[in-house]
């Protein structure tokens, strides 16, 4: 089967890591164009050295490429503000978009939770790196018991965070919090991101707090989380629990420091500590935030191709 041609827009850390993954790992995708706006970017230089067609003219130059009609999927790894314009242009040309920015124009997709629910959408949003790491855990808890409140704290190495992500911190937290609700199933969600300047750079870590009203089956929740972690590891090998799941019985929701509109009843706070080590395709292992985001996008695109092949066969 001929590989499906894709374009990657955005030549920063996320776009370049995605480029490396497609080139090294994918048996179904071919990068037909790598698109940026800075002709001196390291990503464009690396792509050109590897024989990938490049342009520094942005989205406008992409649609003018001779092979643009052959491209089926466009990955957008730029910024939330830029994606708003990109999405309109790509939609006009009938291409499907996988959005790696927190623009949240299309439906949220987290592979282990709802991969097949939105694959026909013209614009698929990959939430955020914090969302990809933590939403599966909230969903795993939600499979066993209702989650009245979910809060996540994502700590990532400052060195792994490019300009686009830095400019989108507000969108990052808002989109992640909304993803905890829409995909994870929490009634209310909150997200916090911490950029650590520590040297040597820290591995990505995320803490997930879930408040579950009433009594809970701790063993069932542990099994559900373990199953979910194993599923994420299928495409993000560096994803793991940092330690055993913690359960704290509380006399009221207020004791868990949840929002005041959460029902004031006894329950259990479930705490999950995660660590994500990157595969080192572009930046070193400390950039697990890149790895989980680009791996999720790659998994989604390959699933799109898989479904199309099945449709043709039928």
Give a brief rundown of this model.
The protein has 314 residues and is an alpha/beta fold. It has helices at residues 13-25, 42-49, 58-63, 80-92, 111-114, 129-142, 163-166, 169-182, 218-233, 288-313; strands at 4-9, 29-35, 54-55, 71-76, 96-99, 123-125, 149-157, 189-196, 204-213, 239-241, 246-250, 267-276. The strands form two sheets. A six-stranded parallel beta sheet has the order 3-2-1-4-5-6, with helices on both faces. Strands 7, 8, 9, 10, 11 and 12 form a six-stranded mixed beta sheet that branches.
Low-confidence stretches: none
Rg, Cα atoms, Å: 20 Å
β-strand amount: 15-25%
Coarse morphology: globular
The strand line-up of the biggest sheet is: 3-2-1-4-5-6
* Average predicted local confidence, pLDDT: 94
Please provide a written account of the structure.
- Helix 1 (13-25) links the parallel strand 1 (4-9) and strand 2 (29-35).
- The chain is an alpha/beta fold.
- It is built from ten helices and twelve strands.
- 38% of the residues lie in helices and 23% in strands.
- The longest helix is centred in the last third of the chain and has 26 residues, at 288-313.
- Strands 3-2-1-4-5-6 form a six-stranded parallel beta sheet, with helices on both faces.
């Amino acid at each position: 089967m001929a590989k499906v041609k894709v374009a990657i827009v955005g030549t920063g850390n996320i776009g370049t890591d995605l480029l490396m993954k497609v080139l090294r790992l994918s048996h179904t995708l071919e990068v037909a164009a790598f698109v940026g706006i800075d002709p001196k970017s390291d990503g464009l230089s690396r792509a050109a050295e590897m024989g990938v067609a490049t342009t520094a003219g942005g989205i406008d130059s992409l649609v003018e490429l001779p092979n643009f009609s052959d491209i089926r999927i466009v990955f957008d790894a730029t910024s939330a503000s830029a994606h708003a314009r990109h999405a309109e242009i790509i939609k006009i040309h009938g291409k499907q978009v996988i959005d790696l920015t927190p623009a949240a124009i299309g439906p949220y997709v987290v592979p282990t939770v709802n991969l097949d629910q939105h694959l026909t959408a013209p614009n698929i949003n990959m939430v955020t790196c914090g969302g990809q790491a933590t939403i599966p855990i909230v969903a795993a808890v939600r499979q066993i018991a209702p989650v009245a409140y979910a809060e996540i704290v994502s700590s990532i190495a400052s060195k792994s965070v490019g300009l686009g992500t830095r400019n989108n911190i507000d969108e990052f937290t808002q989109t992640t919090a909304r993803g905890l609700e829409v995909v994870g199933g929490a009634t209310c969600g909150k997200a916090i991101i911490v950029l650590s300047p520590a040297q040597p750079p820290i591995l990505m870590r995320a803490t997930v707090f879930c408040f579950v009203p009433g009594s809970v089956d701790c063993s069932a929740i542990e099994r559900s989380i373990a199953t979910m972690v194993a599923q994420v590891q299928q495409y993000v090998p560096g994803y793991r629990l940092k330690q055993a799941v913690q359960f704290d019985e509380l006399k009221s929701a207020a004791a868990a420091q949840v929002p005041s509109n959460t029902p004031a009843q006894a329950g259990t706070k479930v705490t999950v500590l995660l660590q994500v080590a990157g595969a080192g395709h572009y930046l070193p292992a400390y950039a697990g935030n890149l790895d989980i985001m680009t791996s999720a996008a790659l998994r989604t695109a390959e699933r799109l191709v898989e479904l199309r092949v099945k449709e043709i066969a039928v």
